[in-house]
Every structure is written in structure tokens, then in C-alpha cells.
From TrEMBL:
Known partners and oligomeric status: Heterotrimer of A, B and C subunits.
GO biological process entries: translation
Keywords recorded for this protein, A-Z: ATP-binding, Ligase, Nucleotide-binding, Protein biosynthesis, Transferase
The EC number(s) this enzyme carries: 6.3.5.7
Domain Amidase: 1-444
Protein name: Glutamyl-tRNA(Gln) amidotransferase subunit A
Annotated active site: 52, 127, 151
Alphabetized Gene3D superfamilies for the sequence: Amidase signature (AS) domain
Amino acid sequence: EMTQAYLDRIAKYDGKINAYRETYDERALERAKLVDEGKIEGPLAGVPIAIKDLMCTEYGKTCCSSKMLAKFEAFYNSTAVKRLEDAGAIVLGKTNMDEFAMGSSTETCAFGATKNPWDTDYVPGGSSGGAAAAMAADFCAGSLGSDTGGSIRQPASLCGVTGLKPTYGRVSRWGLVAFASSLDQIGPFGHSVKDCATLLKYMGGHDELDSTSANIAIPEDLDDVDTKPKKLRIGIAKQYMSDEANDPAVASALVKAIEIYKAAGAEIVEVDLPHTEYGIPVYYIVATAEASSNLARYDGVHYGHRTQTPDDLVDLYARSRAEGFGDEVKRRIMLGTYALSSGYYDAYYNRSLKVRRLISNDFKTAFESCDAILCPTTTGPAFKLGEKKDDPLSMYLNDIYTVTANLAGIPGISMPAGTAEVDGKQMPIGMQLLGPAFEETSLLRIARIYE
Ligand code: GLN
């Protein structure tokens, strides 16, 4: 009944939102029946979920919202999805995203933008905008996104749901279409901290198929979020407190959050993250460099779109890529190729790796005196569809509070923090908590206090 109810709701309302790229009605209902009959069991038996359109499944298509992969059918399941299905979850469908996960608004998709369910004139954030919108519109009970520079936390914030980016290496990337391999991480969206903890518990952990997945077991009590955290020292970094950058509603939500922690007995400590200002430039060098390399595989021969009647092999490569990729993806490939080219490699790529280390060290030092850092997820609420589409730089700057966690590999969670006024309407904003690597159990417990 629950699976049917979600599918009915999607059929009725998703025309307005475009959260899903495709649904698997027949397969989902078949699995739901098996749950009813007791033939599928497990801790998530019968829980209907949605997955971002860049996680391979042996059913349906995996398009990454790109013309390049419009017809791509994978022949294996990504580990994260497989583990959730093994635990009994039911995949309702794949959700829309920015093409190859490059973007912050879910507008760079080849198959139309996703709209924010709170107000369809606004973006849902991105790149996992479809997965976040599916949660906000009540089109699933939980969903999976990927976060390379904020793509789970930022849309969670703009759609008023909870989203968790786990530690790099916590969830296997096997079967996740690569954007920037040293930053990409799969994570859950939920209606609560507990939802996110539960999904992470069953999809995370070591996987032989991904050599970067950490050989660290998921703690048995990861989803026991109501237990009081052992230590409660909340770090506040002045770099995230700028009244100039933050919307007044974000600034007051932050003050309120500090009060909530104080009332819970937390010690509030000031921490310094001096290299925060380099987060955006470093991220957009590292991410584009890795993307340019990862996306070299789409050559019209191995995968994806192939142009018709090419003149020769070079023309086959060039035209297949020109036709298959959208503007933002091309921009990133060019930026990344430039940063990696001989003569510029040391000045851009190599230098950005050094600053990445400094950013990571900032967090290590900060976590010597606190257990989690409290900060906004975004500077303000959602912007209008089309508003930033032709201004890539302003779109990139939008990621200022999220990219450093990916550069450092640490976990971060975004939780609903009330609303801010935009054009006379109230739209959601989010509050973020960042924690030390592999300390999700403590991070989730600390998050639960705020929720
Ligand atoms: N908005 C960022 C970008 O465009 C982050 C994307 C992501 O996390 N996948 O790269």
C-alpha cells in the first residue's frame, strides 16, 4: 500500500516538480508484494526510496541527466543501492540531477530542470536536487544523493529536509558514475537525523570493489541517535559568521542554534579555519581537473552517445562529445584540462593540492578543541529558476560553506533551520554540522540535539 501510495502521488504531482527521471512501478510493486508475503525481509523491508540518476542499477537506465548517457543501461548494481535492497528497501525510481552532478540548482540537466516543491518558481538546489525535492514533496520515504562539493547538503537546505554527506570512504563508490573521484561520496536524505543514520548504517562500510572505501566497520549503534553524545563541545568559526554574506534569517538561525546547544550543556568554543577563503578556488581546480580526466571515457566508442556518420576517428570523438555534453560539463572539462596541462600544472593543480592539505589541517586542528563545527549550509534560501544559470561564477560561490568538507574528506549534515523570506515568501534554510572523519556516530547524536 505504501509503495502504491508513493507511486500514485508521483504520478499525480511530479509533472509539476520533475523530481524523478524515471520510476520503476512494476518492479517496485513486485518487490512490495514479496515483502507482504514475507519473502523479502530485513531491517528496511518495504521502505520505498529514490536514488539519484548516477547510481548504476541493472534495471532501468542510468543517465546522469546527460544526453551522453541517455540510453545507457548498466548491467550491475552500485554497492550502496544493492545493500539497501538487500536490507529490504524498494527503489521507486531515479531522480533528476545536474548533468554529471555539476551544478547547484538542478538546471543543467538534459531533461529539464527540477523545481522546488515549496515554490515551483525556485530551484531545489543541486546537484542532487531531484532527490531532495522528492523528499520535500513526499514522493519517497528516503533518498540517496551524492556530494562532491555540497550536492547533498545544499539541496537539503533549500528543500527543508535532512541530508548527510558521510566521511570520504564510508560508502562505497562502486557503481557511482564518477565526477571527481577524490571528493565524491554517496549519502542519504531523510526527514530526520535518524532516517539518515539508518540509511547510512545499511549502505555503508567496506567494499572490496572500491579500493578507496575504508576498511572500518560501521558502528552497530550508528542509528542510536538519541543517546547523549559523550562530549559536547561545539566549534564556531568566524569564517562562517559573516553578516555580509549571510541572509539575516541564516544569521539568526545560527544564534538560535548556539542557544540550543548551550541549553543542552554544550561548551561553545571559537575555532579558526583560516584557509576557508581558498575553498572555492581549490575545489573548482581539483574537481574540474578530476572531472576532465574521468569524463575522457565518453569518447563515442566505449560508452554513451555516438555521432552519426563521422568523417574519421578524431571527428567521431569530437562530435560525439560536442553533441553529448551540455555547456556546464564542457566548461568544466576545459577548465580542468587547462589546470592539468603542462606549463600550468604546477601553478594550478599542484598548488591547489597543497592548499587542500592546509584546509584539511585547519579542520584537524579545530577538532582538537571541539567535537563538531556548527555553521550554516548556505548563505541564504533558494534562488529563482534561471537567476544564476548564465552566471557560473555566482553559482560556484554558492558552495562556499560546503566544499571544504569534501576537500578535507570529513562528514557533514544539513538540517532544516526554519525559513527565510524571499520575495515575500517563506523558503527553507539549513544548519550544518561538520565532524571529524569517521565520527558519524557522534556527529549524528550531536545533530539530534538540534533537530
Ligand atoms: N555545486 C558543486 C559543483 O557544481 C557541487 C556539486 C556536487 O557536489 N556534485 O561542483
